[in-house]
Design a protein that fits this description.
Distance between the termini: 94 Å
Largest sheet: 7 strands, antiparallel
């Protein structure tokens, strides 16, 4: 009779027993759910950003070379024979760690961010990877592709330039060895140590590692003499979105001594710690300003 009064598990005839959770178990499970929700990184929904002059759409965030990148602006390059390419500029997600200090110096306003070249210095000098996506609006042969970079970098090819940077500039220009058709992309990736790589329609060309050359390349669009004046502003027009996104989690810090206890001495021979980012705090608590755009 007992079997007829209780439900059974299908197929084995064994009575199913109801699971009862004690109040303590319910509290523990609730806290575990909250803890997991707090630890897991928030997923940012991908959106399409339209470059208004061409109608080209670029996705953000973008995954490239195994890392996440956030779009900070778009632009349109025009030449005498029409529009050449639509461009999107991205920064690696780690840029969000150093952006708050730059944004605070700008009084957390867009106007302050673009005053005194704060936005441009943050991008050019920032210790994080950057990615430029150039989508061709017409076909370009390899000579035209190279010309897009050789003309604004012509100063680095003169006899007055240091041999190392002149050689690396020539090596960079040699990466443009294939034609691109309309709709195909040129991707320029430069990491936080100045390693320059070019992707032509998805095919990688490994270039030189030269931080100084890397800064000159970004100044093609963001320097004091950009190839397209409007692009200097539009390519960083969304930079303040970094303040609205969750900051990537950092590795756990070592335990600090209790209040009132002396700081542990620095081990002999240990190098002094250095702050990363385009602006740091120096001795005496003074803020070290950004270096100038040009490094000559």
């Amino acid at each position: 009779m007992l079997g007829s009064q209780n439900s059974t598990r299908a197929g084995d005839g064994i009575p199913a027993r109801p699971v009862h959770k004690s109040p303590l178990q319910r509290v523990v499970l609730s806290w575990l759910v909250l803890l997991v929700a707090a630890v897991l990184p928030a997923r940012v929904q991908a959106v399409e950003i339209v470059e208004p002059g061409s109608g080209q759409r670029f996705v953000s965030p973008l995954v490239s070379t195994g890392k996440g990148y956030t779009l900070v602006g778009t632009g349109l390059r025009k030449r005498d024979n029409g529009s050449a390419y639509a461009m999107a500029l991205y920064v690696e997600d780690t840029a969000r760690q150093s952006f708050p200090s730059a944004y605070d110096r700008a009084n957390r306003t867009r106007a302050g961010l673009f005053a005194q070249n704060r936005a441009h210095n943050f991008f050019i000098w920032g210790h994080f990877a950057k990615l430029a996506v150039l989508r061709m609006l017409r076909g370009h042969n390899k000579q035209e592709l190279m010309q897009n970079f050789s003309e604004p970098l012509s100063e680095l090819l003169s006899e007055k330039t240091a041999p190392e940077i002149r050689q690396d500039t020539l090596a960079f220009l040699a990466l443009f060895d294939a034609d691109l058709h309309e709709g195909q992309e040129l991707r320029l990736h430069i990491d936080d140590i100045g390693q320059i790589d070019v992707y032509l329609d998805g095919k990688k060309r490994t270039g030189p590692q030269n931080p100084r050359l890397a800064r000159h390349i970004w100044e093609i669009w963001l320097g004091f003499r950009p190839v397209q004046p409007q692009m200097r502003q539009s390519l960083l027009d969304r930079l303040d979105v970094l303040a609205q996104l969750p900051t990537p989690s950092k590795p756990p810090a070592t335990a600090s001594p209790p209040p009132g206890s002396p700081n542990p001495p620095t081990p002999p021979g240990a190098p002094p710690s250095k702050a990363s980012g385009p602006a740091t705090t120096g001795r005496g608590g003074k803020t070290v300003p950004f270096p100038p755009l040009r490094d000559r």
